[in-house]
Amino acid sequence: MRHHPTGEFNGWKILQIQETTHEAFVTGEGESAVWTKLGAGWPHDDGKGFNVELIALPVTGRLVIRERKDAAD
Hints:
The chain has 73 residues and is mainly β. Helix content is 5%, strand content 56%.
């Protein structure tokens, strides 16, 4: 889950809890490629893009953003 400020009330920050909908992985090529999870993504409020947070930046390989399996259920 991700918390981000949506405003203030009597000096208190109001946070919106946003569920992670996508995960970010780095992978190589081929059927035996290893997938390493690097982060997660959340859709913009207008639905026209994503915010993605990564814990590392891949030097090689392909960055793949996939919908979370439990988010689709």
